[in-house]
Amino acid sequence: INESDMTSFISCLKKLEFETRFKNISNWSVKVWDFNVEFCIDICKIIDRIDAVIICSNSRGLIPIVEYLKEKGIKSIVFASNIPKVLARNVDNYFEIEEDILQSNETTETT
Questions:
Q1: pLDDT class for 110, splitting at 50, 70, 90?
Q2: Bridge-partner residues for 75, per DSSP?
Q3: Which of 1, 46, 75, 104 could serve as 92's disulfide partner, Cβ 3.0–4.6 Å?
Q4: 43, 53 in Cβ contact below 8 A?
Q5: pLDDT single digits (tens) 12-27
Q6: What phi, psi does 46 have (nearest 5°)?
Q7: CA distance 33 to 59
Q8: Please, what is the average pLDDT of the chain?
Q9: In the prediction, which pLDDT does 90 show?
Q10: Cα(50)–Cα(46) distance, rounded to whole angstroms?
């Protein structure tokens, strides 16, 4: 995904009155659990102002925050590919993005 596409997507969400938090992991040497911890801290900072969280990750490491959100009555929705069953069972809703769709977009962008 290029920067322009991300900006357009985030702008669209904001027009729909979503409050967005976006973390660009440009350095893939950053470990996934570091991202998960930052994500959880961000949610905890705004938990009193939200009624739903849309997660674009398939990380099992997010199950504890999903369970916490459920305890607080906050909905969680996951958009990702290869969503583990254990994560899918714990969220209110999930949308599986087929990997070939993601790959075809990556191929289009590089040509």
A1: very low
A2: 52
A3: 75
A4: yes
A5: 778 888 777 666 656 5
A6: -115, 10
A7: 9
A8: 80
A9: 96
A10: 7
Would you say how long the chain is, in residues? Answer: 111
The alpha helices in the chain, defined as continuous H runs, are 3-15, 32-46, 63-71, 85-90, 99-110
The Cβ-side half-sphere exposure at 70, using a 13 Å CA radius, reads 13
| pLDDT computed for residue 109 by the predictor | 47
Q: Interhelix angle for 63-71 vs 32-46, to 10°?
A: 10
The contacts of residue 19 (CB under 8 Å, 6+ apart) are: 46, 49, 50
DSSP-derived 3-state class of residue 1 = coil
Q: How many CA atoms lie within 13 A of 26 on its CB side?
A: 2
Highest mean pLDDT: which range of 46-50, 95-99, 101-105: 46-50
